[in-house]
Please model this.
Amino acid sequence: MSQARSVGVIERFRDRLPFGPTDPVVTLGEGGTPLVLAERLSERVGAEVHLKLEGTNPTGSFKDRGMTCAVSAAVREGAQAVICASTGNTAASAAAYAAKAGLRGAVIVPDGKIATGKLAQALVHGARVIALRGNFDTALELVRELAARHPIALVNSVNEFRLEGQKTAAFELLEDLDGRLDALCIPVGNAGNITAYWKGFVEAGAAPRLFGFQAAGAAPLVNGAPVKDPETVASAIRIGNPARWEEAIDAMRASRGAIRAVTDDEILSAYRLLAATEGVFCEPASAASVAGLLKYGADGAERIACVLTGHGLKDPDVALEQVGAVVPCEPQLRAIERAVLG
Ligand code: F0G
Model:
């Protein structure tokens, strides 16, 4: 596994990806992420629940699987620059892979609505970060128009290479579980990832049920209509009009699954539970998968995987709002005894 991790998903799954042996590969060693059995959660749910820790990818989210493919393809096509609209993680990933490839990167993010860690990443990798006075949906519309007019590679999940790369997580799950998986729980925002997983499962001849979860304040697929002003603490999935709408609905139907809503309170409660009882720190959007499993169950599934899409360190502000205060202490033994034992 450690060897597989270092080579990246293109090298590891090249026979199932649209890359030839001599194509340029831009990789940071993404993929090969841990699958951890969640003992406490399994007890609660009454099934075997595994957590796919996508936050351990190089930039801290699953986006890296797709970004290695999108940026490698952009280099193959001779692109000089890449661009995306993003709630944060795509921006961080695009910025890092653009830096690695020596391309210019521009990212459009909703002003004031992206987590601090993600903003720091995009900036530190040298991308031009544009804070749009509008939400993600508007940013994506604008960036699609811009990419149609200029020779800039669009690396949002409307780019097919992104889905190709992200489907490799489904291959890894099946490998790690010897092909036996009954249900997958996954957060849904722009709906690229659920689409990619289904593609991967179908290609591998598997058909677990897909249970997708949206935040209640940003649940267009649940409501059956776009949400004009989406709102949720899970800023990564604050999306009102997903680009992969039809594909996500098709994946849900074909897998006999469901797409449902979880409230911010339910998301944060799952987020704290994962951190405090499983030792896993994910970002709020990722916890939607576990919140959904706890709320709705998995319809008799015996073996379940929850995708934890991004690392908790991405969003330190939400983390600190959720926990107790630190214990102040004078630098004396008596004081420290009281502070530690008291
Ligand atoms: N979880 C996290 C941590 C995300 O960053 C995203 C999407 C999702 C889940 C949902 O995945 O969009 O494929 O349905 N983030 C995008 C971004 C939109 O710009 O970083 P999806």
